[in-house]
Design a protein that fits this description.
Layout lengths: L1 H14 L15 H14 L5 H20 L26 H20 L5 H19 L16 E5 L5 E7 L7 E5 L3 H13 L31 H11 L16 H14 L5 H7 L4 H7 L1 H7 L1 H6 L2 H5 E5 L5 E6 L3 H9 L4 E2 L1
Antiparallel strand pairs: 1-2, 2-3, 4-5, 4-6
Helix pairs in contact: 1-3, 4-5, 5-6, 5-8
Length: 352
């Protein structure tokens, strides 16, 4: 279906142009033709992600290979891949205050009803969304939209060592990579226990296939026990409630999305968990060191500015002595005997 879409939308309308390409054989396509096609596509669809563009490039390569299999004798042209612009892919990071507002907003919708024994649809999904966001916030795993990437119960490994606190590991297989484990904050243990009790009240036990499943059936739209693949509608409703994302639609640069919670996790680890190196963080969150350095550098610059500058040796630990003409003479240690000798003698020449 994807290849069919590529052909009908991004390939056929250009290559069937009667004036230029209608009668042209595939073996006669030139590099200039390829460049013209890419420019045409860029003009019509300027906001496509590089990965999407490259899938369309692959479809054109398949057509070259098809021609060879059908007997044409030619060397297929090399199509240059679109390179991801990492700094433009960053999504807005959600602040601690915003996360507190989100939590209060969601809890307001289910706390009192749950206390009164009510479990209607409008109560249970805010509860599940809150736990879903906590998982992203406490693990840094990528949000999912497919069954393949959804967290399964068998992926959750609860470990308890003698004399030590419980640890949770979640096995991930995102982006067709080999399996690896994401270490989850111990704070999610409460969420995990709460979720299991919640589902048991609907007759769904720990033997369910997925961590987040629909607890009820609603017509043909929702089926009890099926995995929840997206909380997008609830998220968009919440964004409108707070007036967030008004200047940037979801998925665009600097907009808030589920990925904002992943960003918050990674940034928090970089700032506050200095015992964790970037390699370990990259492995746990299934990304690359280059990606962390590129995407999260601006977050660190913004959040660590005060702390970074407070450790500046030249600024904090030294004072500058100037000549009467205004030229820099030397730097001396702050509060040293020499510092105070200069201050007593010529305070106008001492700059802190």
């Amino acid at each position: 279906a994807q290849r069919k879409l590529h052909w009908n939308v991004y390939l056929k309308p250009f290559w069937s142009d009667k004036a230029r390409y209608k009668s042209k054989l595939v073996i006669d396509i030139t590099y200039d033709d390829i460049k013209a096609w890419q420019q045409w596509r860029q003009d019509l669809y300027p906001n496509q992600a590089p990965s999407t563009v490259n899938k369309q490039n692959t479809t054109l390569r398949h057509l070259f290979k098809l021609a060879i299999r059908q007997g044409e004798n030619f060397a297929p042209l090399k199509i240059i891949e679109a390179q991801p612009k990492l700094t433009e892919r960053r999504r807005g990071i959600i602040s601690d205050k915003q996360m507190e507002k989100v939590e209060a907003y969601l809890e307001k919708q289910y706390r009192v009803p749950f206390a009164e024994g009510q479990k209607l649809r409008r109560h249970i999904y805010p509860y599940l969304l809150k736990n879903y966001l906590d998982l992203l916030k406490f693990s840094g795993i990528r949000p999912w939209t497919t069954r393949q990437n959804a967290v399964r119960m068998k992926d959750v490994d609860v470990i308890e060592r003698a004399g030590k606190e419980i640890t949770i590991l979640i096995t991930r297989r995102e982006k067709a990579k080999a399996e690896s484990s994401a270490t989850v904050s111990r704070r999610f243990i409460k969420n995990y226990s709460s979720l299991n009790r919640f589902y048991e009240s609907f007759g769904i036990g720990k033997d369910r296939e997925f961590l987040f499943v629909h607890p009820i059936s609603v017509g043909s739209v929702l089926r009890k026990g099926e995995p929840i693949l997206s909380f997008k509608k609830q998220w968009q409703t919440m964004m409108r409630h707070f007036g967030w994302n008004e200047t940037a639609t979801e998925g665009q640069k600097d907009s808030l999305s589920f990925y904002s919670y992943r960003h918050a996790f990674i940034t928090n680890k970089l700032i506050n968990n200095k015992q964790i190196n970037i390699f370990e963080l990259a492995k746990s969150t299934r990304t690359s060191i280059k990606m962390i350095e590129t995407i999260y550098a601006h977050y660190l610059n913004e959040r660590r500015a005060d702390a970074f500058l407070s450790d500046d040796y030249d600024y904090v630990d030294t004072v500058t002595i100037f000549t009467p003409e205004g030229l820099e003479l030397k730097n001396v240690k702050t509060n040293s005997e020499e510092h105070w000798d200069w201050w007593k003698k010529s305070p106008e020449l001492v700059a802190f």
